Amino acid sequence: MLDPIRIAFALLPLSAYLSVLGMLRWRKHPTVLSRSFDLLLLGMGIAGMVAVGPIELFFPRAAYSLVGNWIWFVLLALYFLVLLLIVFHVPPGIVVYGMRKEGLRMTIERWLAEQGITYSTQADTIFIESLGIHALLVDAGKRDVASLQAIGARQNLLEWIRLEQEIGRAVRHETIASVSQGVPYLLLSVSFMLVAFWFLASDTQALRDAMTALFAE
What is the model's pTM? Predict the structure, then answer.
């Protein structure tokens, strides 16, 4: 028998993540995010599935016998600390929702030309030696999502932050032809949310028992 609490716990964060993606794709202008922040959003979206999957699989029963259900807060805090550790160590990068890599390349090259900064390109790679940026332009499949990913060890993080800000200012003047790509994400988000609440409503007694057990200890 499916546990309604576990299903809801897995689906609700994912639903929130999909709704954020849907709103980003619903905007009339491209949205620029750092690669780290984009990864952080994904990690928060799958937090529920991680909790009812790997975390529960390797559940520390010895610690549970000492602190009870409060161990879940410790485990979730540990998960987010590990997530932050990964986010802070991921190579720098920029993700642009609502733009293909060709458009992102033109935006970067236009800004570099305006600033008089020399650069060189080779296929989808861009080398900006004076800024300490070596990057690769990548498309996310057939979706209008492009990313600029750091390649190589020699990267100037401050210049990456500056480049992200400049790209963000530049794409404000770009207009997305169609915002309908956000609709599937929003519909999927609403579907997951309805499924989660349906499972919770189907067994309210189990929900009350779980909440009582959690806060009684």
Answer: 0.83
